[in-house]
Amino acid sequence: MLKDTYTFAVKGSTVNRPANVSRATHINRATLGLLFSALMLSGVKVSAQAQDSPTQKAQIQKAQTVSSPDQQAAAQVLDLLNQYSSDADWDKYFALYRKDGIFIGTDASERWGMAEFEHYSRPTKGWRYDLTERHLIQHGEVILFDELLNSPAYGVSRGTGTLIKTDGNWKIAQYHLSFPIPNEIAKQVTAEINATNKQ
Length: 199
Known about the structure:
Elements: E1 2-10, E2 13-21, H1 29-41, H2 54-66, H3 69-87, H4 90-95, E3 97-104, E4 111-113, H5 114-121, E5 130-139, E6 142-151, E7 155-166, E8 169-178, H6 186-198
Parallel strand pairs: 3-8
Antiparallel strand pairs: 1-2, 3-4, 5-6, 6-7, 7-8
């Protein structure tokens, strides 16, 4: 009987799946190889590793601890945030924030409480940011996050912020949206920003 654990790493997230499969239903390694080759050819980044030793099992447990239920719940909040902003579903969107939450936009003047941010957002048709990569760090009832996003309007974007467990649910306390500037053009871009600010 095979008792392996396979780690599937897809760009943006890592999911651990235990595979306690009987002889009658197990997928042999050759079949898995063909499956992974097909996925890789289709552009999906996938890696598989059989875990048999106590050390390897400990590594899997550590990976599962990193992706705790709290972190999974927080990640779902951030996924919904992107979905609701794309749909311009503002009631559901703002329900994901704490009442004392702060949104920091891309302009230096944009540091908004929820009332100001709602006033800005509700007349709009929303905005779309697709997740590329996300990192979560938990400190008790607080989760810090940073994520790379892709916007049809602006290209590569970055969201950073904080979620706080509030009445048993993860709520966004602060969200900061920014545009990462490649080092090669940083001086050129900041010179343009400085020139604009002087006008």
